[in-house]
Specification:
By secondary structure, the protein is of the alpha/beta class. It has ten helices and eleven strands. The chain has two domains: 87 residues, Leucine Dehydrogenase, chain A, domain 1 (Rossmann fold, 3-Layer(aba) Sandwich), CATH 3.40.50.10860; 129 residues, Rossmann fold. The strands form three sheets. Strands 1-11-8-7-5-6 form a six-stranded parallel β-sheet. It has a three-stranded parallel β-sheet with strand order 3-2-4, sandwiched between helices. A two-stranded antiparallel sheet has the order 9-10. Bound molecules: guanine. Guanine binds next to strand 4 and helix 6.
Length: 299
Amino acid sequence: MSATSSKTIILEGAPTAKSIIEDLSIKIKEYTAAGKRKPALAVFLVGNDHASEVYIKNKIRACGDVGIKSQLQHYANNTDQFQIMKALAKLNGDDTIDGILVQLPLPSHLSTEEILNAIAPDKDVDGLHPYNLGLLFAGRKGLQPCTPKGIMALLADYKIPIAGKHAVVIGRSNLVGKPIAALLLQQNATVTICHSKTNNLPAICKEADILVVAVGQKQLVDKNWIKPGACIIDVGIHRQTDDQGKAKIVGDVLFDDVKSIAGYITPVPGGVGKMTVAMLMANTVFAYEQHLGVGASFM
Ligand code: GUN
């Protein structure tokens, strides 16, 4: 990875995501032509978080594109834990539902842990149930969290070498930081996980051949943190309003500044986000094949 600024490759998620969606769509058409039912995904949204509403809209639109039936269960912000648990139990027992997704974050009066634990592991298309996280950390096949899985698919599609490289991950969430570290390790990267208590963070990042930034701080990372030619994966999504009052979406990385030195960089929007949605579709089709009994077993 010794690209100079003029050769920086933008890791666009759209073409990779589109090709995954097309493949899945063909697969579903083949199943339905053979008389099988369509795959089905149930999506839970609690409250009115604007960002969550946008993500959900994109996920439901993708279901339509790929041929997955979707149902949205939208609950008021003050819905209690018992009501959500009851609805999840019903879907767990419904043989026509393949995937269940609970959009995060949940309102603070709800227990995220208890709710994620209540999703049947074979329908856990977000890969956040402890059973599926256990399979992931054991290096075994299963449902994997969508953003980390999407990052790996993007790296593969752009043929970014991983084995032997130093990968630095900023962020230790169950949603992104910990699983992406495990997936990079499985592909023989040497992985460092950084977080809010890490000393000398910029210096550690400057050692990275692959830097995954999932820290949730607007434009934190600038070019002084970057090894020339490195591959930068930006997982952040933030709304920013410019001096004219125009809103735009930015990431955790100061894109133009870092692009001037990186070898590869994901844009925001248009990078990792597209891959997250494509992987949700892939996980739903994977769960569907398990339920039809036509996929390779992993349970
Ligand atoms: N909130 C932000 N990203 C995600 C995701 O990948 N899955 C869920 N369920 N919630 C999220």
